Amino acid sequence: MKMKKYTTIFFFLTIVQLSFGQNTILWKVSDTINNKTSIIVGTFHQFGNSFIDSIPEIKENLYNSELAIFESIDNKDELQKTINNREESKELKKRLKKIDYLRLLELSKNWKVDIHKLKPIELRWKLEQEFLRIKCKTVMKNDEWDHFDNYLQHLAEEKNIKILGLETHKEQLVFINKDANFPNWKEERKRISYLLDQFNRDDFNKNKCNLVRKYRNYDLDYKLNEDCKQGVLIKERNDNWMKILPQLLKENNCFIAVGLFHLYNKCGLLEQLKEEGFLIESIELKPASNSVYNK
Q1: Where are the beta strands (DSSP E) in 166-272?
Q2: Whether pTM exceeds 0.85
Q3: Of 10, 38, 165, 272, which has the most beta carbons under 10 Å away?
Q4: Contact, 193 vs 96, CB < 8 A?
Q5: Does an H or E element contain 62, and which?
Q6: Mean pLDDT (the chain, rounded)
Q7: Are 25 and 215 within 8 A, CB to CB?
Q8: Which among 180, 149, 177, 181 has a CA at the least distance from the CA of 165?
Q9: Cα(265)–Cα(278) distance, rounded to whole angstroms?
Q10: Is the separation of the CB atoms in 109 and 205 below 8 Å?
Q11: Does residue 180 have a pLDDT over 80?
């Protein structure tokens, strides 16, 4: 009877630990055979450097690593050059309402890419990124860096930590278009128009900032026991990365920075690495440490 009671208590504590253990964006990955300890951070690409600076555990683990791994380490200017070298399309002005086109011209006046050379899905993604930065305030006024991953790469380079990219920016563009089944202007026009309207509203849809709020407070559920619902953009890329990550983790103390959703579900990197025999543990973070965002 006593043994049954202890078993019940142990089971309860395990469930409690699992339910509260995911309130983090940092995970420890241990190879107990080769005595290597690595860290994975699930990034929110559009957050500025002040958010990273408010979490000392991120820099500490990055600086202790032997190899820093990112989705891509390509020069962003090269991607912009690739897009700007495309032939200009007349579709944008033709497809959008006049008011939407004028709004877009104003919004994009400081962009480094020509909006007339973006594909429909690329333009929508760019607008969604700008929406997060501007309306959801993921970037603060004093931030020098407006991209989570790029700032971490900069920090790694400053400390002469070896860096590695899992794919190129050009490959990422292919995945984005492939995931959306290469949509045309007719399919994307309404979404683009809606976003442009939201930029000009004080009463914009606050629900679009829900994930931002959850991320700031580490209020996350990685749904590690659920199947993946996303295909090309998450699952296919995860599967590609898993062809090289295990060996790197066996040979180095790594710091891996990838988009948050690459850690979710059964097809996420956390569960796939667990299946490969790595020990996966969450690193507790206190939301108070990023209180600059909660004022």
Answers
A1: 254-259
A2: yes
A3: 38
A4: yes
A5: helix 56-63
A6: 89
A7: yes
A8: 149
A9: 17
A10: no
A11: no
